[in-house]
Amino acid sequence: MTNKLNSNNLTKSEEDYLKALFQLLVEGKSAKVGNNQLAEYLKVSPASTNNMIKKLKTKQYVVSEKYGKLDLTKEGEYIAVRLIRKHRLWETFLYNYLNFTWDEVHDVAEQLEHIKSQKLINELERFMEFPTKDPHGEMIPNADGEYLAIPKVMLSSLSEGDICRLIAVDDGSVNFLKYVSEIGLALSSEIKILEVREFDKSIRIQFGEAIETITRKFADNVFVKKVV
Amino acid sequence: MTNKLNSNNLTKSEEDYLKALFQLLVEGKSAKVGNNQLAEYLKVSPASTNNMIKKLKTKQYVVSEKYGKLDLTKEGEYIAVRLIRKHRLWETFLYNYLNFTWDEVHDVAEQLEHIKSQKLINELERFMEFPTKDPHGEMIPNADGEYLAIPKVMLSSLSEGDICRLIAVDDGSVNFLKYVSEIGLALSSEIKILEVREFDKSIRIQFGEAIETITRKFADNVFVKKVV
DNA sequence: TTAATTTGTTAGTCATGCCTAACTTTTTTA
DNA sequence: TAAAAAAGTTAGGCATGACTAACAAATTAA
Are residues B117 and B179 in the same domain? Predict the structure, then answer.
């Protein structure tokens, strides 16, 4: 699957649906993805997703039985991965060369990922000397769509006494990203779990000099590598 | 008009129409632009332009009387100039940093110019150290939309014996641009008019070692500064 | 200055992609 | 296991922006 002619005639919408499905299926925790779940993720009505899924099925990017769960074909997955590749390369460019901050890159990359030009993205990658991670710590798929996914350990899955290193954050929410930088967390920060409170699942963490209490929801969006 | 909030909620289509109108009105030779002319330029039906013009009139970007000629308001012109600015900055980036050739830049820039982010384009400009001309020799408007248009002298307007320097070419056609580079012409080439043939308006020109015959149509797309 | 031609307008259609409301199937749970 | 809840589907509508066909106005030419 090295060079497939660039006959990508998908609309922006079609691309958005395929990418969303990929993120729920492959990157998210859900083993099965349903119509309503996809609708909620994309913030559209279930009727809209149903319609689009029908279309993507005839185009052979999606498979599913009536009333059944959704899945991507190899083709569909390939398109989604290429979008993620474009998204992350653009984020890297904005962050490293154009003075964008952590929380500013996502929205503009959402637009840029739909630009259709194989050459553009491959040259951009070369220009940046083949970065492997985007500004949020996520791996960048290569030109063949190979995707070296690092198993994502959520900060919320650790226990008291554990020590870990921040390797990535979810980039879906600007407010979350602002919050992360405000309290002083960054990629590679070493974090110690001081306490996990049973009552509301909030977590007391220490990093550098700082001690903070974070919510379960916050910790679900922070990915780490366990050190101890 | 220095900073105007970025409340540009125009669709890609609306932007395309405004830009096209600007190019016909300000950059083209036509003093008056009509509906059918715009339709032909955009390769859509006159009914489509009529419809869109109606819409742009209610939005106060275009003015015209029924059955009358089209004109842009200050607002409409401002939007068009910003699109041209984005187009030319992207072309410059593709050409100077991403190994795109003369004839490859246009199509991708047509997509990139619709990306909505003031910061993106201003940072891109800063990153490239404020270039003043795009790869085809056209002036790049600044962030305030100031547009230092150089009077365009068509190569076809010169006479036998004249000597001129190539300062810009029209970037609308890939085939034309390929043709230009194939025969060896480039920005700054010094060109001497050897003969203008009355019969078919073809022109015999000399540049460097080369002597070529070019058609009137070709010469209409080449802009020069007269030297002698 | 009338007729022919060009230009502009209107009406009605179509595809895309969104919506709500109503309905059906599946899953959950009491 | 039957009722309730959740999930999925269908029908019908709307906005955008294209189209064709038919018609009206303005311009050009005979």
Answer: no
Paired tokens of A166: 């921040």
Of A98, A107, A108, the CB nearest to B127: A98
Q: Which pLDDT tens digit goes with each residue over A80-126?
A: 999 999 999 999 999 999 999 989 999 999 999 999 999 999 999 99
Gap between the Cα atoms of A6 and A80, Å rounded: 14
Structural domain range at position B210:
153-226
Q: Which amino acid is residue A41, in one-letter code?
A: Y
Q: Is B144 exposed, middle or buried, given 0-12, 13-18 or 19+ CB atoms closer than 10 A?
A: middle
Q: Are A19 and A80 in contact (CB under 8 A)?
A: yes
CB contact under 8 A, B120 and A97: no
One-letter-per-residue 3-state SS of A111-130: HHCCCCCHHHHHHHHHHCCC
- Which two structure tokens, joined as six digits, stand for B101? 């050739």
| 3 state DSSP class of A96 | helix
- Looking at B104, B134, B149, the residue that finishes a domain is B149
Q: Is B170:B138 a contact under the CB 8 Å cutoff?
A: no
Q: Do A54 and A74 lie in a common domain?
A: yes
Q: Of the ranges A110-119, B3-12, B26-35, B210-219, which is most confident?
A: A110-119
Task: For residue range B27-78, list pLDDT tens digits in order.
Answer: 777 789 999 999 999 999 999 999 999 999 999 999 999 999 999 999 999 9
If one counts the domains in chain A, the total is: 2
Contact yes or no for B108 and A115 at CB 8 A: yes
Task: Look up the pTM and report it.
Answer: 0.87
Residues B64 and B28 in one domain: yes
Last residue of a domain, one of B108, B125, B149: B149
pLDDT of residue B7: 53
CA A83 to C1' C24, whole Å: 36
